[in-house]
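User: Thanks for the earlier help. One more: NUDIX hydrolase. Can you show the sequence and predicted structure together?

Assistant: Of course, both are below.
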Amino acid sequence: MQWTKLSEQTIYENRWFRVNLADVALPDGRHLDHFLIRLRPVAVATAVNEANEVLMLWRHRFITDSWGWELAAGVVEDGEDIVSAAAREMEEETGWRPGPLRHLLTVEPSNGLTDARHHLYWSEGATRIGPPEDGFESSRREWIPLKLVPDMIARGEVPAANTAAGLLLLHHLRLG
């Protein structure tokens, strides 16, 4: 049962996103006006150290008025390589430079409304380069034991879907 997009037009646009309206044909022949949000790709990065701790940020999100643990993340700039963007975001937000980054997974956090793709990377280890350039992004940065991750997610301490998915896969890869 596939939906078919017949047309799409931009309703609003800025440097961060576009809001579009699509004319969609449903399998039964009816038409549906469907709003969608077109977004830039997001690059996410973290590191896991020899003690199986993962580098995370504790931050407040004003939109949902919630606090939680997240991984360093940000939009990929025009012409920027996704892996380079992930490394840049980790350095800017944590003050740690990752080792060689490996692709962990790509997720679509809300594919019924947006075309957002979040590309998650990780490295074995990182080097402290100084205080974070974007220290305003979080209240603190900590190395959290991976073994605590499933319980943290269950308690709601990791509200971001991209972070939860990446942490659970890292937990599986590193601890089984």
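User: Great, one quick takeaway?

Assistant: The longest strand covers residues 4-13.
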